[in-house]
Amino acid sequence: MTLRHIEIFAMVCREGSVTRAAERLHISQPTVSVAIREMEEHYGDALFERISHKLYLTPFGHIIYDYSLNLLNVYSDMSDAHQKYDMIRVGTGTAVGKLFLPSVVKGFTTMHPDVRVRVSVGDATRMNQLVMQNNADFVIAETVDDIYGLAHRSIQHYPIVAICHKDNPLAKKEVVTAEDLAAQNLLLREPKSRTRRLVDSFFQRHNIEASPMWESYSVQTLLNATMENIGVSFHSLDHAVACRNVSLVILNVPDFQGERYVNISYHKDKIITPNMQAFLDYYQKETQHMLLEGIDAYNRLHPEATYDVEVLFQRDPVSERA
Hints:
single chain; 322 residues; alpha/beta; nine-stranded mixed sheet; two-stranded antiparallel ribbon; 11 strands; elongated
């Protein structure tokens, strides 16, 4: 029995007719009939029942059909193996997708013109589901879901900072306290997000009950609201300086400490190809470069600032953790 027998058998199952299967495969009806007969002789059992000139799969035929589909899918994957090898399917959360990935993808594809990159941007949980369905190779995002079979590791972490508009009174203060922040309109991430948990914990340590004026899943929405001088928001430093907006000021809150982690998530059995690893390496290198440029731009835009944001790193802007 050969792969051709299985292809013919699967087509008969799909069409429910020897005649239509022959037409779809562009072969003669006798060829189809011979292939089915040879398979039945091979197994020593009937694959179809023939009732009133119609074909019906036997219980054993159903089992063979399931195996046939699996074999044909594997064969198709093998046929497309090189094409898939040259494709990287990246899933990402909205913040990374909006602020960083366009530049990363442009630079990477310029350096690797033979590699195709396909990007899906959306809720990180939905992106992780794409990984589990083998519709994405990996996800770059802050969120890590507890899904059986989903592996992950942190590749970067950044300090979280409080920011406001330059016309906000806090922008002129050399040191900002929890009480100062609580008196402002707070523009916060959604409950249960890592950044929101850190902010809530910060106020709780100071015995302050602070409630948000604005909640949003979207980092860009909160940045936009801050640029409109609506209130104070909390962001990863890389997000804050990525805007390069002269109206945004990073506040010095000495006793607020927190970090945002960037993770890659992938199926535990996923083979990370050299192209995928090259993309991840380039992502880390390029986003570090973008951060350093963003800090330089911030310092140029705020020459009067008494607070040097570079001290947040202790001369180590981006750290990696396996």
